[in-house]
Structures are given as structure tokens and as C-alpha cells.
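Deliverable D5.2: sample structural annotation.
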Amino acid sequence: MDDLYVSTALLENGEQQAALQEIRDLLLEQREIKRSQTVLLRVLAIALLAVSLVVILAAAILIPKAVDTLDQIQAAAEAIHVERMDAILDNLETFAAESVGIVSQADEILSGISDIDFAQLNSAIENLDGAVQAFSDLDVETLNEAIANLNSTIQPLASFLNRFR
């Protein structure tokens, strides 16, 4: 029985040795994996730091420029707005001045109309009707004949006087 116990112990000792060797190999493999993970973590940390620095620098450079650009855009918009308002006010002033001029002219016309003597105007219109009637009664053919006769009489006289020039 002692033999059995020793061989069982040896067997167990040999298995233990194999198990310990396997555990040792696994621990060494885990250590290598941990080392590569540590290297990767360091590389990632450096990359993250570099990206963070780039973002911070970009923000430090671009944000003030963006703010300046926005301020310039706002100032330009306000200037355009002010210029547009000035133009509108100028147009309104011109319109008001022209309106006042028109009103004063209308006032002058109305005062001139009120000064008209309508009785005298009606009398002048009646006299004008008489003059129009006299012109319409005028014999145009006789007038044309008289002008032709006058022309035939004056033409030889004009020719005679042109010789002395």
C-alpha cells in the first residue's frame, strides 16, 4: 500500500508539475499580452493627447477669428441697414417737400380761380362765339382768289425791284 501511495503521490506530483508548467506558460502569455496592451494604451494616450492639443490649438486660433468675422458681418449688416434707412428718410423728405410744393401750387391755383370774374368770363366766351361765327361765315374761296390776284399783281413788281439789287 505504501507503494501505491508513493506512486499515486508521484503521479500526482508529475501531474502537478505539468499543471504548474501549464499555469506558468499561461501566466507568461498573459504577461506578454499585458505588455502589448500597455504599449497600445500608451500609444492611444499619446494619440489622444495629440488630437486634444490640435483641437485646443485650432479652437484657440479659429474661435477668435470666427468671432471677429461675425462682428464684421454684424457691423456690415448694421451699416447697410443704416444706409438703407438714410435713403428711405431722404426719399421721405423729398416726397414731403414735393407734397408741400404741390399743395402750395394748388392753393395758388384755387386763389386764382376765386379771383376770376365769372360774369366777365361768360361775356368773353359769348364774344368768342361771335368771332368764331364770323370766321365760319368767311368765304374761303373768295379769300383764296383775292390772295391769288394780289400775288399776280405783286410778282411783276417784285421781279422789277430785284433787278436793282
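Annotation notes: The radius of gyration is 61 Å. The mean pLDDT is 80.
The annotation will be released with the project's public dataset once the embargo ends.
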